[in-house]
Design a protein that fits this description.
The chain has 365 residues and is of the alpha/beta class. The N terminus is likely disordered. It is 49% helix and 11% strand. The chain contains 9 helices and 6 strands; from the N terminus they run ββββααββααααααα. Strands 1, 2, 3 and 4 form a 4-stranded mixed beta sheet that branches. The protein has a two-stranded antiparallel sheet with strand order 5-6.
């Protein structure tokens, strides 16, 4: 495993490539719809998410046979109503993959920036000519506001020589890795709930059973019969989904994912030799254990986390019982690898759920 302070040159990877599987349009089992879509790089929410990857959709027929294993996403075109949710999910997988990968890249860039800065400030020529200063706001005793309050002013709160500044940057790197774990888990949670919610959008009855929701069932019937009632139904349905998600969060992410796989009859694709839905859930649980420990301020590795790291599907996590809980860049890399592989596994499983054979055969672990 690379040490946290080893220099890792970073390069933005190629755009995620998708292709569309279509029986209807071309009339054969290996036909593919054809168009190209490039995702824009835009800020999406208050966490400052920005897509550093994007994805591109191309015709399968434009590709050479030798490039097929490089394809990351298969978009399944529905040929019957019960497959529409699968098409919807597979259309989103490319965006989810870009989202998760971009989240990892942002943290890797931040850690890499600290590494570069540490090397710069350690250089004797720089240190001989400069001090490193840190500024913040402090009260300006000479600046009184009309209401009697003291105005703040920019003030130097730390002044270091080069070697001290360099070491401070190196010492900060584990903190970024720590917050990276928390952020990546939040993104994974967002993707899993988006996956589950997409399924439920095509299977409303799953959340409309019982007397408690008879009014919702009435709104759904009215919307089916009258387009003017659609907005009332959609608002009520979104409220129901949001309420369901808030309660479902208490189950824990591994159980949420397992619940989705059970209700949607998802199982590992035939191209996987060892991976199962249960092993995927174990990986999510291990990431969650690390995330929870960090959120709650744990400083040492618990018995539970150490035992989880001894499992076959431990994402190369190497935390040892009662040792300091310190996160490094390679732990983030393990989470990134899992997210990448999970989306690929789901994509293959959804493809086979439509009883179609994979367009290429590649046995995976």
């Amino acid at each position: 495993m690379p040490a946290v302070n080893s220099y890792l040159p970073l390069h933005v990877p190629p755009r995620v490539v998708c292709y569309i599987f279509s029986l209807e349009k071309l009339g054969n089992e290996n036909g593919f719809d054809c168009f190209i879509y490039l995702r824009g790089h835009t800020m999406s929410n208050s966490r400052g998410d920005i897509d550093l990857v994007g994805h591109k959709i191309v015709s399968f027929q434009e590709l050479d046979a030798g490039t097929i294993p490089l394809i990351k996403n298969i978009i399944v075109i529905a040929t019957k109503p019960e497959e529409r949710w699968i098409e919807d999910v597979t259309r989103q997988i490319g965006e989810w993959r870009a989202k998760l990968r971009s989240a990892y890249i942002r943290w890797a860039l931040a850690i890499n920036g600290l590494e570069v800065a540490a090397k710069k400030y350690a250089e004797p020529n720089w240190a001989a000519q400069h001090d490193f200063i840190v500024t913040s706001l402090r009260p300006d005793e000479n600046g009184i506001r009309p209401d009697g309050g003291i105005k703040p002013k920019v003030t130097i709160i730390a002044r270091w020589d080069g070697p001290t500044a360099s070491q401070a940057h190196l010492n900060t790197m584990p903190m970024l890795a720590t917050f990276g774990v928390i952020d990546l888990y939040a993104h994974l949670e967002e993707v899993i709930f988006a996956l589950y919610r997409t399924y439920l959008n095509y299977h409303h009855r799953q959340l409309l059973r019982g007397n408690e929701f008879k009014n919702l069932r009435r709104l759904k019937r009215e919307a089916d019969e009258d387009a003017t009632a659609q907005s009332a139904w959609e608002a009520a349905w979104q409220e129901r989904l949001n309420s369901w998600q808030r309660k479902k969060l208490y189950d824990g992410l591994p159980k949420v994912f397992k619940s989705f796989c059970d209700i949607a009859t998802i199982k590992a694709s035939s191209i996987y030799k060892h991976g199962t839905v249960e092993s995927w859930c174990e990986c999510i649980e291990i990431i969650g254990l690390v995330r929870n420990a960090l959120v709650h301020g744990a400083t040492t590795v618990s018995d539970e986390l150490a035992a989880a790291c001894a499992k076959p599907y431990s994402l190369a996590f190497d935390f040892e019982k009662d040792k300091p809980l310190i996160v490094h860049l390679y732990h983030l890399q393990g989470i990134d690898l899992f997210c990448e592989q999970l989306l690929s596994a789901l994509n293959c499983s959804l493809f086979e759920l439509t009883n179609r054979a994979m367009p290429f055969e590649e046995t995976k672990e």
